[in-house]
Amino acid sequence: MIGRTDEQQLEHATMQGRALYSFNVAHFYRLHTAYVTQGKSHAGIVLARQQRYSVAEQTRHLLRLVASKSAADMKNRVEFLSAWE
């Protein structure tokens, strides 16, 4: 998927039933808003600011999120990794 557009990335994740994790906060938040406005659905988006967290911190926060939210809970939802510190 390297070299694909943000929309293609989100479409691919959605077809796979997977939430998408990205540091591209502004673009994916706008894309989420466009999806909701157009009545389109996605499997969820998790956003984090780049270089804010170490890999270990990212993993811990993502594990908290996964333990708290089901796939159904994530549908059409944006979660910010900072909320799971």
Summary of the model, kept short:
This protein has 85 residues and is mainly alpha-helical. It has helices at 6-15, 25-38, 55-68, 71-74; strands at 20-22, 45-47, 78-80. It has one domain (6-73).
Notable characteristics:
mainly alpha, 4 helices, globular
Report on the architecture of this protein.
This protein starts with 5 loop residues before the first helix and ends in a 5-residue tail after the last strand. The longest helix has 14 residues, at 25-38. The protein has a three-stranded parallel beta sheet, with helices on one face. The chain is globular. α2 links the parallel β1 and β2 (45-47). It is 49% helix and 11% strand. It is mainly alpha-helical and 85 residues long. It has one domain (6-73). It has four helices and three strands; from the N terminus they run αβαβααβ.
- What amount of the residues lies in strands? 5-15%
Strand order of the largest sheet: 1-2-3
Number of strands: 3
Element string (H = helix, E = strand): HEHEHHE
Low-confidence stretches: none
Gyration radius (Cα, Å) is 12 Å
- Please tally the helical runs, counting DSSP H or I stretches of 4 or more residues: 4
Q: Averaging pLDDT over every residue, what do you get?
A: 95
Q: Could you tell me how far the N terminus lies from the C terminus, measured between alpha carbons in angstroms?
A: 29 Å
Number of domains: 1
Largest sheet: 3 strands, parallel
> How would you classify the helix and strand content by structural class?
mainly alpha
Shape: globular
Tell me the helix content: 40-55%
